[in-house]
Automatic annotation (TrEMBL):
It holds the Pfam family 3HCDH. Its EC number is 1.1.1.157. GO terms for molecular function: 3-hydroxybutyryl-CoA dehydrogenase activity. Belongs to the 3-hydroxyacyl-CoA dehydrogenase family. This is 3-hydroxybutyryl-CoA dehydrogenase. Keywords: Oxidoreductase. InterPro entries: 3-OHacyl-CoA_DH, 3-OHacyl-CoA_DH_CS, 3-OHacyl-CoA_DH_NAD-bd, 3HC_DH_C, 6-PGluconate_DH-like_C_sf, 6PGD_dom2, NAD(P)-bd_dom_sf. Residues 188-283 form the 3-hydroxyacyl-CoA dehydrogenase C-terminal domain. It comes from the Bacteria. Residues 6-184 form the 3-hydroxyacyl-CoA dehydrogenase NAD binding domain. The lineage of its organism: Bacteria, Pseudomonadati, Pseudomonadota, Alphaproteobacteria, Hyphomicrobiales. It comes from Bradyrhizobium aeschynomenes.
Length: 292
């Protein structure tokens, strides 16, 4: 089994920067790619901020922080990923964008390298089929926030070979995370359970059963969830939540997965949650204020 020493990460958003952060701390060389230099700059600033917070909390040393930062390089071109042993795609949850990335990546990436997607919901088999190496393609699904969450789901496509699965498992173990293996069905395990709950919380708001604060307080205090479902939706990103519900609805053809029209409205408004500073809460002031 080939050892993974150099990791490529496509997309410098919240998941991409989290994966780059934990991989660099674990001693891997990381190349972070995104479409604009602004995105790369803000991704690196977030990594630096989160590493600095870990130093302040004595989770890591100052030396570990500076070594980790030194292991991450950035590139606006996929050519910069050519000699990586593993490339994880973490661009937005849109299948056409992911397919285009894999098409372009295969043209430059060394043939023996493994390709993975961090997709929350999309079929690994279908994504693998648009690459030149379906046997070396796998779903490696990290949870948000990556530096704090223990779990990573591994999803084999129909063609994924044993060596790829074992290399992915070893990689996840090196990052100090636990593996849950999921079959390749829409939204896998965590999101198959979590997203219908979030969607139902949005229906609860839409139908006027409770307001934002009441729904979140009910689930935090009444079910001991660390975040309320609407706060969590804002944290995940409302665009991502909608995309996952659409994949569940289309993939399982069951009306119980119908995305709530209010979720659609927020996404159409560009109110995507924390990343755009407005969602079920408005984050522009000193503390979050409910928008309903
Ligand atoms: C959509 C998908 O495909 C799959 C998914 O990921 S679904 C989402 C899964 N994730 C969850 O369900 C998260 C639920 N929330 C939680 O577990 C907790 O609220 C939490 C772990 C995120 C934070 O815990 P907390 O104790 O309430 O928060 P908080 O006190 O602010 O943070 C504790 C520490 O976490 C760290 N932290 C918080 N957010 C962080 C982030 N985004 N990145 C890195 N570190 C972070 C900080 O070190 C923070 O320390 P400080 O107090 O010094 O700032
Ligand atoms: N949010 C979550 O809780 C979780 C998300 N995921 C999955 O991870 C992936 C990323 O999600 P997340 O990090 O939250 O999303 P973000 O919106 O935070 O980040 C996505 C990043 O990808 C960039 N991007 C878009 N198109 C391309 C491209 N062609 N090439 C390279 N980069 C591109 C975006 O740039 P720009 O904004 O300029 O378009 C942005 O920087 C999705 O598949 C999502 O389903 C998995 C687990 C948890």
């Amino acid at each position: 089994m080939a050892q993974i020493n150099k990791l490529g990460v496509i997309g410098a958003g919240q998941m991409g920067n989290g994966i780059a952060h934990v991989a660099a701390l674990a001693g891997l060389d990381v190349v972070l790619n995104d479409v604009t230099s602004d995105r790369l700059k803000s991704g690196m600033a977030t990594i630096n901020g989160n590493l600095t917070r870990q130093v302040a909390k004595k989770v890591i040393s100052e030396e570990a922080r500076s070594q980790a930062l030194g292991r991450i390089s950035i590139t606006e071109s996929l050519d910069g990923l050519a000699d990586c042993d593993l490339v994880i795609e973490t661009a937005i949850e849109k299948e056409d964008i992911k397919r285009k990335i894999f098409h372009d990546l295969c043209a430059v990436l060394k043939p023996e390298a493994i390709i993975a997607s961090n997709t929350s919901s999309i079929s690994i088999t279908r994504l693998a089929a648009c690459t030149d190496r379906p046997e070396r393609f796998i779903g490696i699904h990290f949870m948000n926030p990556v530096p704090l969450m223990e779990l990573v789901e591994l999803i084999r496509g129909i063609a994924t070979d044993d060596a790829t699965f074992e290399a992915a498992k070893e990689f996840v173990g090196r990052l100090g995370k636990q593996v849950a293996v999921s079959e390749d069905f829409p939204a896998f395990i965590v999101n198959r359970v979590l997203l219908p709950m979030i969607n139902e919380a949005i229906y609860t708001l839409y139908e006027g059963v409770g307001n934002v604060e009441a729904i979140d307080a009910a689930m935090k205090l009444g079910a001991h969830h660390p975040m309320g479902p609407l706060e969590l939706a804002d944290f995940i990103g409302l665009d991502t939540c909608l995309s996952i519900m659409q994949v569940l609805h289309e993939g399982l053809a069951d009306s119980k997965y119908r995305p709530c029209p209010l979720l659609v409205k927020y996404v159409e408004a560009g109110w995507l949650g924390r990343k755009t500073q407005r969602g079920f809460y408005d984050y522009r002031g000193p503390k979050p204020v409910p928008t309903r």
